[in-house]
Structures are given as C-alpha cells and as structure tokens.
C-alpha cells in the first residue's frame, strides 16, 4: 500500500512558534522543518511507512526463514558481481552468486539441506566476495552482520552467522522514563580490577548491583558497537549491527540489559553514527570497491582529524542502514535509547574543526550547516519517539546549537538532552574556584560528565592518593582538600548542572590515576584500562567515604527531585567569601569553598518561607568530613528580603579550613 502508515506531522501553529522561537530564527526553523517533512513524506510514500523501512535489518544481511531456507541481501551499487562463501560451501568463491536487483541491491536464496536443516549453520563463518568493475576480487563482511569475532592469530575480524538454537528471552519489562535522569556511564571492558578485558557477565553480576546501590536509574554503555581497535574507546566502529564479541556473546549482552531492567535501570547505547572506521576487510569502507557507497566520495567523505569515513546522509540506502541500526539495538537487545556521539561533527561541514562557538546565531545557521545530517537527526528522533514512548536521546554537541533539544515540529532536532561537555572541562580550568565562572558554566549546560585524561580525584590529590588514602590515619592537607572538593564538585554539578546528571564509572568513589587502553605506546598494558572496585571494597580506605556520599547524594535527589525541577535560582555567588547559594525545587544548596574562612550567622535568601533542616552534609563523618554540624538544628526563615528573595534565614556554614558544603531542604 502507498498509504502512509504514520501521518506526517505539521509544524506547530505560527503563533505558538513565535512564543517559543526567537523571531530571527523562524525562517531557519521553518526551512529545516520543511526539509524534514519532505524527506519523511518520501519515505512514507516509497517504503510504505517508516516502521517497515526502519526494520530493514529483517531482510538485509543473512537470515534463516521459517522454512529453514535462507535469504542473503546486500547493497553494493558499484559491484560487478557478488558471491557468498564460507564454511557451508568449503569456501568456494564462485558457487553461490547473488542475483542483481534494482537500485544496487543483490540477493541470494538458499533452500534447506536434504535433512531440512539450514544451509548455513549457527556459529559458522561467512564472507561476501565482491567483484569490482575494475577486476578486483574483494572479501568483505556484510555491513548487516550481527556477530563478528577476531581469531587470536589474525588482526582481521570474521563474520559469524549467529542463530543460536536457544536465544535469550527477555523476562522483565522496560522501566518507564524517569523524571530525574541519573546516568552511570560505563565501559564493559574496563569494569573489573583485573588487567584484562572484562565481560558482559562480569558487568551483570558484579557492576549492576553497585549501580543500583548508588541510586543511578540509567546506564550509558560505551564501546558496544563492534570496533576492531580496542584503544579507540569504541569510536572507530567497524560492524554497526554487531555487539562487541571481545566481552562475550550477544545473548550475554541481552541478559545484562534485561537484568538492569529488573533493577529499574534504563540502558542507553553510545551510538556512533557520526563517522566510521576506515577498515576495509572488516569495516564498511570500500565495501563495493568504490570510494563512496555508504560515504561521501572524495575529501568530503574523510574526517580531517579522526582519520575516519563520513556518511552520506542524503543517500536513501544510508538512511535505511542507520535508521534500521537504531531500531535493531532497541528491538533485538532491549536498549532504551541512545547517546549520539559526535553530533557537532555531523551538524557542520567544518565538523567543528578550527571553529569556535560564541553563541552568535550566525555560527549555527547558514551554508556551513550540513542540512543532510541535520535532517537525519530530526528523522531519527522523530521515529524513535513515535515508536518508543519512553525512548531517551542525548546529543553530544559542544557547539551549543540552538533548538537541538526542541521538538521536531518546532524545527528543532528533537533530542531530549544535550551532553554538556563544558562542565567537566570547566572544573579542570577553575581549580582556583572562581564562583562566577562556575555559575555561568553550570546554568547554561545540560547534563554533565566528569571525565578526563586524569580522573577528577587525581587532578585534586595526585600522588598523595598512593600513600594517604587510609581512614586509619589523619588526612594530610592535600587529601583533606581533595576529598572535600571532590564531594562539593559532584554535588554542585548535580544541583546546578542541568536536567540530568552523568557520572563516569569510578568517579563515584574518586578513582585514582587515569584511563589508557592497551596500545603500542604503553606496551599493550591493561594497567590503566580497568576500574579498581577493590579500593571501594576496602572499608578502611577513604574511597568508601566518597562512594557513600555519591550514593546518598543520588538518594536525596530521588526524594526531592531537583533535577526535574525548574532551573535553579542562584541568590549568592560571592567571590570574596567563596560562597555559592542557590535554590532548586524545595531544596536550598549552601556551599562554602573558601580555603580558610568560616562564617557564622550567614544570611541565606530563600523564596519559600518555613522551617528548614539539613538533609545532606558533606562534612558528615561518614563521608570523610569533620562532623561539625548539628543535624537536629532547625533553621527558620524571616520575612526579611535578601538578594531579591522575599525571605531569608541565617545559617552557619562553619569551616575553619575545609571545603564543606551544607545542603538544607524543606522540613516535611
């Protein structure tokens, strides 16, 4: 049927759009929406609806059908001929040719064997043999391959036909999208204290319980899409439909996600659609022998810094491939959404290289914007949110593109969140703690991560962490300062950073040192490609104190919901006193960052009158503080206007020489 399966939405009424979008941006928003609407209409008309189009993983690649016959389909427009070879035919290169179809597609059907078993058995090896017009014979992995492995004796991955006799069956429903998003960003391979590549099963049994205990309600998994080079951190993807085999099998990843769901935790995939590895034999590059196929030809198809290939988002078959890839990870594995990597590179023809972003609209609207990739992102968000009500999408964009998180119907890209990379960078820059600079960064970004070369804790305490983290000895000044600041930085980011909070695994307990994957430059060492959970499990070390603070910070947010509240009202950012005070929801945050000064009867502006009590205190002994505050003290507001608020109260942010925030909330 040529009848659209989903109606193509109109943009919001003009009078509503004028209320939500600056008038100067209206032509651009309407223009972008027009391009999106045109592409979606074409998709609906030509493919019978985006639901069918984005389930192309059901027909491309290799499939066993209900009668045990097999279907193989590829898109290789520049190929002269295509063959299938593998274990099933003794690696005969010519016995099983594909038939050429329209629009560069190739198809092969195999009947069952005489015993009615499929012609290609589960766990057997396959290759696509591509003959080019120039006479070359190329051995390729299907772009739609769902499982690839690397033999210990080779550097090239093998395509494995994955069709287990007893596939994993999900047992638990997906959690609903939370009002407050608290994300634990994790890498399966480094999720162990041991110097090795950790497994999906290890993560399921040893890491998921920690995440649940900490109070995170969402996990963002990195480096899942198969990547030949481990040290690329998963960002040089070679097989887009394959879960990385270095951690285990697809069924073990499905179990991981299902168990997370049983704990009420959503799971997001760090999806890389901004570029692809240059690998040819086990990647997408030159799949059909041409320079283009999935990518732009020539210089436009090469990233100037990443040494990788760039997708041609105007290509119909590339849209099929990428949009179906998103559906695949949700439908097959149970992922609940995506963090889109490299969105800045996608949005601009210059890919953000050598370009600064000051906030001037001219930097975001004009011929330098790649409208093809912009429309792809609009399509992706629209389709995901139409098909999956609780799907979460996050854009990793450092440019600050306006309307990125506005609905598609307003001419926006439709993302739910933007990852605010400026926040962790700012913390490294402002270790001198200039309050105004901190406030500006936090109130203009959504959500945040604390990830870097050295860990946050190691930036603060460095080599002293090797000898002075025992709770059985007094803290020296470096550890004292670092432990208190580490808690305050996390809490200030949590309260002021935006509508969500993201923590990279290990930061919750002040992981020491840095992250570095095995490579030639470090003699292939795994020493820094691990997370030392054994440190937090040793209760006489101060890592446990930092862990417990992170846990209670998340649990306090779960109770009072400041992440879901309106943006904070900052009433005090006193550079001389080094004091920051703000309200968010029904919570008042009071921070004293001064290294030597303590204050008594410090006046705090509040909007809501009443009685307040301390609910979270970083100076608590349990968190490695000094226990100087009485949690049974009641703080009463007075109708004394202060700092543009109708009410105020006096508190004692006492700190003779330590960094101790005091957080109070409405007494219920």
From TrEMBL:
It is an enzyme of class 2 (transferase). It catalyses: Transfers a segment of a (1->4)-alpha-D-glucan chain to a primary hydroxy group in a similar glucan chain. This is 1,4-alpha-glucan branching enzyme. It holds the Pfam family Alpha-amylase_C. The lineage of its organism: Eukaryota, Metazoa, Chordata, Craniata, Vertebrata. GO terms for molecular function: 1,4-alpha-glucan branching enzyme activity; cation binding; hydrolase activity, hydrolyzing O-glycosyl compounds. Its EC number is 2.4.1.18. Residues 194-476 form the Glycosyl hydrolase family 13 catalytic domain. The active site is at residues 341, 396. CDD domains: AmyAc_bac_euk_BE, E_set_GBE_euk_N.
